[in-house]
Amino acid sequence: MAEFNRFDIAEAHAVLEWDYNVGGWLRERPSNQRRMESTGCQLLRIQFRAPMGLSFDTLEENGKEIYMTNVLKWGLPIDNEQQAFMEGFFVPEFLHESRPDIEWRV
């Protein structure tokens, strides 16, 4: 289970929005729906500044877990590379329970 680390959470959510935004915001994220604003606006409010070169690959392991858990929870599309990473990271029961719509290879 991911640990609570504000910096990892902010980085993971920034990368999620960059990877999955539609029309400038991540519609699947519940707080974005409530506020009708992007994750970027919320991150600016807490004065988060993303480091140069930030991407999924540069996230700490905790940040990657936060990112992947939210991809599963919000039903976001998963490509083959992400699926392979998730299959190596999470236990099969969690994957099958989280996203029964995906044919997991584990």
Descriptive overview:
There is one protein chain. The chain is mostly helical and 106 residues long. The protein has one domain. Helix content is 55%, strand content 0%. The protein has helices spanning 6-20, 30-35, 39-45, 61-73, 80-89, 92-98. Helix 1 packs across helix 4. The model has no long low-confidence stretch (mean pLDDT 90).
Number of strands: 0
What are the low-pLDDT stretches, counting only 5+ consecutive residues below 50?
none
- Give the helix tally: 6
Tally of discrete structural domains: 1
The level of helicity is 40-55%
What's the mean pLDDT score? Answer: 90
Strand content: under 5%
Rg from C-alpha positions? 14 Å
Q: Which series of helices and strands comes N to C?
A: HHHHHH
Describe the main β-sheet briefly. none
Shape: globular
Structural class: mainly alpha
Cα end-to-end separation: 19 Å
Brief digest:
With 106 residues, the protein is an all-alpha fold.
List keywords for this structure.
106 residues; mainly alpha; 6 helices; globular
Topology, please?
Layout: H1 6-20, H2 30-35, H3 39-45, H4 61-73, H5 80-89, H6 92-98
Helix pairs in contact: 1-4
